[in-house]
Amino acid sequence: MAETQCSAQVIYDSWCHTHQCEKRAKVTRNGKPYCTIHDPEYIAKKDAEGTAKYYAKSTSERAKRELVSTAVSACKAINPDNPMAVAESISDLYEALKEITAQFKKVEPLYFKDNEIIGRAEQALTKTEGGG
Ligand SMILES: [Zn+2]
Description:
mainly alpha
């Protein structure tokens, strides 16, 4: 491409007066020359990236709010007067349930094979680990 000036109009004061961009054109879009910064395809790509970033951020923030809301509700359901005590003991409860279940199955494997309580404990553990 020959030395051509970018065709974009640039605002140069707070009164929105414009002048033609003084940069050298690097691309032609719809028959008009543009510099790299004013290339409509570059601008569209940047806008799309900004929009995607915005939605990714808002989706992850919504997911965090849902997690907090669900966790608080679950803790309040167990101990309405002190949901924080539940939150602080969840990992202890989880580890204890794993150990108890394993111990019962190890000591009396046949008796606890189809035991309803051990079955519920195993279901809760599976759910906790994201398996159902
Ligand atoms: Zn330009």
